[in-house]
Structures are given as C-alpha cells and as structure tokens.
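Whiteboard transcription, Tuesday session. T.W. wrote the structure tokens on the left side:
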C-alpha cells in the first residue's frame, strides 16, 4: 500500500461506522490499521533520518588541498600521526599541518621543506616531547620555507637538546611566529641562516633558579653564520645566553630578557633596537665578541638603538670590539656613571658624549681641508 492512501485511510477511520456482512470485523480492522500505522511511522522516520544525514554530510567542508588536520592517537603517542601529516604535505609540494586544540605527545619529529606546523593558539595547542634527551624537531638538509606558528613546544623531562634544530645544508626563509618553547634547555638552532624570521616567541623559563642553555643561536660559529635574520618582539628568560648570533646582517628588535646571564652575544654584524633587561641579567646585556666563522674574516660590529635606562652592562672581547660598537640611548638624562672609560651616553666606538655634552675621547685631530 502506498503511503498517502494509507495515511488517508487512517485519518478517515470512524470506529462508530457500520459494517456490512462482507466487511472485516472491527477488531481485525483495528489490528490491521495499527500494523499499517507502525509501518508508516517507520518509513517516515527513516526518510527524516536519511534527509538529516544527507544534510549533515553536505555541511562538512571538503578537504582543502595543501592542508592536513592531525588526529590524535588513542594510544597516547601521536608521533606517527604527526609525522605522516608532515610527510604527506611535503610530498604534495607544501602546505599546512594543522593541530586542533589539545596536547599531542611525540618522541621527536622531522621537519621538512615547505611545511607549516600550525596550531589554533599557543595557549591551546601543545606538542609534548616525552623522551629525556634529544631534540623536539630536527630539520632535514635545506628545509626551505619551513614554518611553525601558534603553538607551544614543551619537553616533559627537560631535555638538554633543542626545541628546533637544523644541522645540514642552508636554512632559507624559515619562520617562527607566536611559538612558546619551554622545558628544553635550548630553543632554536639555525647554523646556516638565510632570511630567517623569529617573531613573538617565548623561549626558556625552564630553570628560573639556575639559568642554563641558549634561547636562539644563529650560525655554528665555525663554518657558517647567516644573513638577513630578524628576531622581533620575543621574550626570553632563565637562560645562560638569550641569543648568540654569528650572522652578518641581524636585526634584534624590542627584545625582552630576564633571569638570563647574558642577553645578546654578538659575533657578527648586529643591530639591537630598544632592548629591555632587568637586574637579573647579571653578566652582560650585550657581549660583543670576535667573529670565529671562517677564521674571523667577516669581523664584528654592534649598533644599539634605545639602550641605557636598564643600566649599562656591556662586555667586549677586546678593545677592538669596543671600538666597533655604536650606542644611541633612548634618552640622555642618565648620569655618566662611575666608569670614566665607559660613561653612559652616546657612544661612537671609543668616543662618548654624556648628557652634559661632554665629549670623551683620546684626542682630537684636524682633518686636512684640501
């Protein structure tokens, strides 16, 4: 029986109507109608469910080419799932490995060229490295355009390794944005850097009572250094050295450091813009040392803009390192200080100008006019 006539017969049924001799008895008629009603209800329910399921399927967005969403493993070890996503994106020519909110436990990952590891927010996504030693992410040789953003990398057992470590080849166009690296002794190691951007990252705070490790290192100090490196708006704490750089063109902008023994150790050509230190950075705010890359052929130079209100704690690897340092403080109302060889103020190598306009220099010579 079709659905519509059956519904019509149910709606038109009158229990008080008379029956002739050829009619079905009332009791039997009632049983038949009840059975038919059950069948109709089942058909209607199945139809509604089918329509709902179809609409639900239609509302799911189709896969986006170049994006792979990581699904956490019920075993508690997400290494295979994450690595498979990284490998798939790299194989497809590059794209994004996306992490929904949650903690993803792993035993070490291999980062590849043109792969972007992205979370929803660094307070909502955590990559938890569980071994006691080793590096969180190790990069393949020449990992061009590798990127990490909007997540936290943590070491459960305070590994003495690095959060992210590159080793071979040239690291071109690497980016780290809105990333926390905690638990590891060291943060980011890029030995042969070319066009690197590290922005809005929080690194360190693993040993607040016993600072150790390096937050960011650019160059290996032997064969390679770097060029076109930008470190911007980062917070580094509880480290032996916040930043060590051998790059020949490095810009460090608005750096915030505390509980570090040394802020910036520069072996290359570096500009430090508006740094902030507190009194716990005890050994040196900025330490300018000789360049050891390739036998020191490239030399060293430090330009500091907007420095001085947090004290004057500078170190040099020799008199020639001091002569290669230029400082323009953020203001000139600080006293010259107690060290006549290193007064606070404007510094051009070995020449100083204090707030009173006094010039400190070894001697003055006239330039020939012809």
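and on the right, the sequence the group agreed on:
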């Amino acid at each position: 029986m079709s659905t519509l006539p059956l519904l019509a017969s149910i709606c038109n049924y009158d229990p008080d109507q008379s029956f002739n001799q050829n009619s079905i008895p009332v009791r039997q008629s009632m049983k038949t109608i009840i059975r038919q009603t059950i069948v109709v209800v089942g058909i209607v329910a199945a139809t509604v469910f089918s329509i709902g399921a179809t609409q639900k399927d239609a509302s799911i967005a189709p896969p986006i080419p170049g994006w792979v969403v990581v699904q956490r493993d019920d075993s508690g070890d997400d290494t295979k799932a994450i690595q498979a996503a990284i490998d798939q994106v790299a194989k497809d020519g590059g794209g994004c490995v996306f992490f929904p909110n949650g903690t993803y436990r792993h035993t070490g990952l291999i980062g590849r060229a043109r792969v972007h590891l992205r979370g929803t927010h660094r307070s909502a996504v955590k990559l938890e490295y569980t071994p006691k030693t080793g590096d969180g992410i190790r990069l393949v040789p020449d990992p061009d355009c590798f990127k990490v953003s909007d997540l936290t990398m943590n070491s459960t057992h305070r590994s003495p390794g690095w959060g992210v470590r590159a080793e071979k080849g040239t690291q071109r166009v690497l980016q780290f944005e809105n990333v926390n690296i905690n638990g590891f002794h060291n943060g980011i190691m890029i030995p042969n850097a070319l066009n690197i951007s590290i922005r809005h990252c929080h690194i360190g705070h693993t040993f607040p009572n016993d600072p150790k490790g390096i937050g960011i290192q650019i160059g290996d100090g032997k064969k390679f250094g770097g060029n076109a490196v930008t470190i911007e708006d980062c917070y580094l704490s509880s480290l032996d050295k916040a930043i060590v750089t051998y790059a020949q063109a490095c810009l460090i902008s608005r750096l915030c450091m505390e509980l570090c023994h040394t802020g910036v150790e520069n072996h290359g050509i570096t500009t430090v813009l508006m740094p902030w230190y507190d009194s716990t950075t005890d050994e040196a705010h900025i330490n300018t040392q000789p360049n050891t890359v390739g036998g020191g052929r490239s030399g060293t130079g430090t330009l500091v803009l907007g420095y001085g209100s947090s004290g004057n704690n500078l170190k040099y690897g020799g008199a020639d390192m001091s002569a290669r340092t230029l400082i323009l403080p953020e203001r000139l109302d600080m006293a010259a200080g107690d060290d006549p060889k290193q007064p606070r103020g404007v510094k051009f190598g070995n020449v100083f100008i204090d707030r009173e306009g006094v010039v400190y220099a070894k001697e003055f010579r006239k330039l020939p006019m012809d």
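Someone added at the bottom: The helical segments are 3-11, 26-59, 79-91, 319-323.
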